[in-house]
Amino acid sequence: METRRVFFAEVLFSGRVQGVGFRWRTLKIAQEFDVAGTVRNLSDGRVLLCAEGAERDVAAFVSAVEEEMKTFIRGVEKRTGTREASAAGFSVAG
């Protein structure tokens, strides 16, 4: 059985990103792109977005989230690469 490799992005957003609808807006934006993954609040006040799919789709999705939520974001840390596909659909976690 062949494994499917996908592009992924793990993005940490800092700023006033909790308690402002960040995760739910991210979920809504995800529905506009062919991506899978999760978005979750972290105990340190940041939000972690994990997305996978075609590189173009993931990049456009992350950019759309950054644009939509720019008034709340003060910092962004990204890690990208390729890996075996591990997600199905997009959801709010935690």
Automatic annotation (TrEMBL):
InterPro entries: Acylphosphatase, Acylphosphatase-like_dom, Acylphosphatase-like_dom_sf. It is an enzyme of class 3 (hydrolase). The keyword Hydrolase applies. Gene3D superfamilies: 3.30.70.100. The keyword ATP-binding does not apply. It catalyses: an acyl phosphate + H2O = a carboxylate + phosphate + H(+). One of its GO terms (molecular function) is acylphosphatase activity. Keywords: Hydrolase. It comes from the Bacteria. This is acylphosphatase. The lineage of its organism: Bacteria, Pseudomonadati, Verrucomicrobiota, Opitutia, Opitutia incertae sedis.
